[in-house]
Amino acid sequence: MATIHDVAKKAGVSVTTVSRVLNNRGYISEKTRNNVFRTMEELNYQPNELARSLLRKQSNLIGLIIPNVSHPFFSELASYVEYYAYQQNSKVLLCNSHMDPVKEKEYIEMLKRNRVDGIIMGSHTLEVDEYRNLNSPIVTIDRQIDENIPFISSDNYRGGQLATELLIQKGCRKIAHICGNLKLNMLANQRTQAFEELTGRHNIEHVTIQTDMNVFDQKQYEHIIHTLLQEHPDVDGIFSTSDIIAAFAIKECVRAGKRIPEDVRIIGYDDVNAANWIVPEITTVKQPIEEIGRLAIELIRKQLEDESFERQNILPVKLIERATT
């Protein structure tokens, strides 16, 4: 197996020059750079990534822990995180926790062994102490776990306001709100807070229904909404905290013979790509998913380079009205 010394000897340059080419450090002429890469290819030289990371004290690897990669919000977020990481010459290790604290802890240990430059935590488990004890930079998504750890969130309270205000303006007199389990200490719970405060202020009859602890288990959504429509047949507005739940609400309303939006108006949350594929297209509160992904990478970079950064990063949301209202 070829070594860096073999590459240097065959290319007629020093080992230091080869190292600079590999790490993109210092000035290297294009002729020399091409010569080194051509020689590496001829010798089938594979750089030892771990050794390189130890030398420069960076691995160019970033860990991303999310609860469910099949959920459209997290799949889109992962795509943007990977895109912006790549722009910074980094790669992403994707960890799919499935809301399992044990599995999540194993992933954290794996990321530590691989000396990742930082971890982006989009997980929703109850266990957070492991993150407080990490030596690597960390960024959390929609969750504040420590005053010293930066977090990114959309303006959840404003999002809840926008959705609730629209349903009230459209004349809804009994509104159902379907949300994740409020025992999970998520900033998204502020959507529910805004909903309940606003409906109470306007004397609007309302009901709040929580999912179980595995908030991304789609199998429960159908049962929740079916039960809701049976127990509250006079519901004329539904505000759900994800577009996926809103899609299930459309399905169950159609099954129950209710017209949308004439009989029931429905609002989702996130504005994932699928929100405007469904018929009728879903009115939703748009989270800036791309900006969340970009900012997560930027916050990791700033911590690595000892730059100043904001610990609280709350991004604006926008109401997107479509056919369901």
TrEMBL record:
Domain of life: Bacteria
UniProt KW keywords: DNA-binding, Repressor, Transcription, Transcription regulation
Coiled coil: none
Keyword Transcription regulation: yes
InterPro entries the record matches: HTH_LacI, LacI/GalR-like_sensor, Lambda_DNA-bd_dom_sf, Peripla_BP_I
Domain HTH lacI-type, residue spans: 2-56
PROSITE patterns xref list: HTH_LACI_1, HTH_LACI_2
Annotated PANTHER family: LACI-RELATED TRANSCRIPTIONAL REPRESSOR, RIBOSE OPERON REPRESSOR
Protein name (Swiss-Prot/TrEMBL): LacI family transcriptional regulator
Species classification: Bacteria, Bacillati, Bacillota, Bacilli, Bacillales
